[in-house]
Amino acid sequence: MKGESQTILGNNQFIQIAEVDSTKRQYVDLTTIISDKPEPNQTYADYHVRAVYQPSGNAPISISSASNTIRYDMVDGIAADKLAMNSTEIITEYRLEQNYPNPFNPSTIISWQSPKGGHQTIKLYYIMGREIETIVSGYYEAGYHSTLCIVNSSLPSGVYFYQLTAGDFVDVKKMVVVK
């Protein structure tokens, strides 16, 4: 995408907004502008993602079905909630992803996956282990999940940890706040 913002027009007009290599499991879009005539009192827009694979040589192009619905909050301007609608991939393990962007100021996206529904929490900690706040706490269905983390403006620049706990599964990742 090369740092440019893109506009997605309504009425089934689609454009390519990014290319990622085949090893990527996720893509976080922080620069897309959604533009359409909203319905009265509309506060969000949904858009779908399709993946296109073009092998080398004369092999045919493969196009995925629309696997995710992304709900874009038109009030806050944040595409932070990915719902695994129509997803055909079966999740077999818990996984906590690295936050993106990292380093960040003042917000970042934390994503994780869970193979079964249950109570899940994500907590933020100082580097010495003292808890700062609970970012996520609640029941989540099996699937991919993302949340927007906006750090307290009083937190200084530095290294912090966030921890996912889901049943017996616990994983910790490092994040860096820069001011």
Helix/strand order: EEEEEEEEEEEEEE
Based on Cα principal axes, name the global outline.
Answer: globular
Helical amount = under 10%
Beta fraction? over 45%
Poorly predicted parts: 1-9, 75-87
Mean pLDDT: 73
**Computed Rg:** 18 Å
Largest sheet, strands/sense/barrel = 4 strands, antiparallel
Q: What's the number of domains?
A: 2
Q: Which class best fits the helix and strand makeup? A: mainly beta
> In which order are the strands of the major sheet placed?
11-10-13-14
- What's the count of strands? 14
Protein architecture, described:
It is a single chain. The chain is mostly beta strands. The chain has 2 domains: 86 residues, no CATH class; 83 residues. 0% of the residues lie in helices and 47% in strands. The strands form 5 sheets. It has a 4-stranded antiparallel beta sheet, with no helix packed on it. A 3-stranded antiparallel beta sheet has the order 3-6-7, with no helix packed on it. Strands 8-9-12 form a 3-stranded antiparallel beta sheet, with no helix packed on it. Strand 13 and strand 14 form a beta hairpin. It starts with 5 loop residues before the first strand and ends with a strand. The N terminus is likely disordered. InterPro entries: Secre_tail. This is T9SS type A sorting domain-containing protein.
